[in-house]
Amino acid sequence: MESSNPGPEPIIQLHDIRKIYQMGSQEVRALDGVTVTVYPNEYVAIMGPSGSGKSTMMNIIGCLDIPTSGRYVLNGAEVSEMDDNELAAARNREIGFVFQTFNLLPRVDCLRNVELPLIYAGIPRSRRREMAEISLANVGLADRMDHKPNELSGGQRQRVSIARALVNNPSILLADEPTGNLDTKTGEEILDLFESLYAKGNTIIVVTHEEYIALHARRIIRLRDGKIESDERVDRPDLDQKIRDAAKKRAEDETVENASNL
Ligand SMILES: Nc1ncnc2c1ncn2[C@@H]1O[C@H](COP(=O)(O)OP(=O)(O)OP(=O)(O)O)[C@@H](O)[C@H]1O
Ligand SMILES: [Mg+2]
């Protein structure tokens, strides 16, 4: 039976991607022939020493940077052929970015910070407000919407930036060392949040230096000198069973709800 199912289309296909910087007479190969395929609802950790090309790879996946050569297909679309406007549109539609330093606007409250990508996407004001409220509630910040970033803890700030990254319902959440500026306990909270986003069907790619953080993912890609050194599955059958159970229960609850609405 299974062989007749073609399975999902990849969400990310990188083919022999290179990013080369010419520094005077010296050539820096930030990425040196990277080929990777990621499917929807994968949870991938990218690891490797400082300078191995992790951020470069994330920036290319996130359409923030373009490769020197190679092909990138994002959700079926050829990124290498897009002009600047198409790139910006693809980024807005497909990608949510979370940075180590949060990158929140300091002078405005959480709601306005989370609304920002919706302004770029041209969503009307009333709808924006509602979507931002839902996204903040989803990361457990329903009671902090009117706080400015400096009126929040580090973990709460990172949750605001995750709410902002997810407010558009992007296909992919990209996080470059999202726990790098957080203490271990707060970092664990963020990882729990990623786990529940993964359980809801999101595709997550996270860069980290910490082995224990990578072990939260289901796949670990290791870079060295701009090349893929290894690409391994992490087996977590206990957790994956829990996730299937939760999805089943959600589906049942929805059926009951729909029936009672009739
Ligand atoms: N704009 C640039 N110009 C020249 N070289 C660059 C540029 N950006 C990055 N590099 C070089 O490319 C290589 C990869 O950089 P990248 O930022 O991807 O590393 P990284 O794996 O994210 O490292 P870290 O763990 O320190 O964040 C490094 O050697 C870096 O010096
Ligand atoms: Mg980096």
Helix-strand blueprint:
Layout: E1 12-23, E2 26-38, E3 43-47, H1 54-61, E4 69-74, E5 77-78, H2 84-94, E6 95-98, H3 110-120, H4 125-138, H5 154-166, E7 172-176, H6 184-199, E8 203-207, H7 211-214, E9 219-224, E10 227-233, H8 237-260
Parallel strand pairs: 3-8, 3-9, 6-7, 7-8
Antiparallel strand pairs: 1-2, 1-4, 4-5, 9-10
The structure holds adenosine-5'-triphosphate and magnesium ion (MG).
Q: CATH homologous superfamily of one domain?
A: P-loop containing nucleotide triphosphate hydrolases
| Strand line-up across the major sheet | 6-7-8-3-9-10
Gross morphology is: globular
Q: What fold name stands as the CATH topology of one domain?
A: Rossmann fold
Q: What is the quaternary state of this protein?
A: single chain
Q: What small molecules does the structure contain?
A: adenosine-5'-triphosphate, magnesium ion
What gyration radius follows from the Cα positions, in whole Å?
19 Å
- Count of strand segments: 10
Overall mean pLDDT score? 91
Q: Alpha-carbon distance between the termini?
A: 36 Å
Report the sheet with the most strands, covering strand number, pairing sense and barrel closure.
Answer: 6 strands, mixed
Unreliable residue runs: none
Please state roughly what percent of the residues sit in beta strands, choosing from under 5%, 5-15%, 15-25%, 25-35%, 35-45% or over 45%. 15-25%
CATH class of one domain: Alpha Beta
Can you tell me the CATH architecture of one domain?
3-Layer(aba) Sandwich
Give me the number of helical elements: 8
Which class best fits the helix and strand makeup? alpha/beta
- The sequence of SSEs as H and E is EEEHEEHEHHHEHEHEEH
Helix content: 25-40%
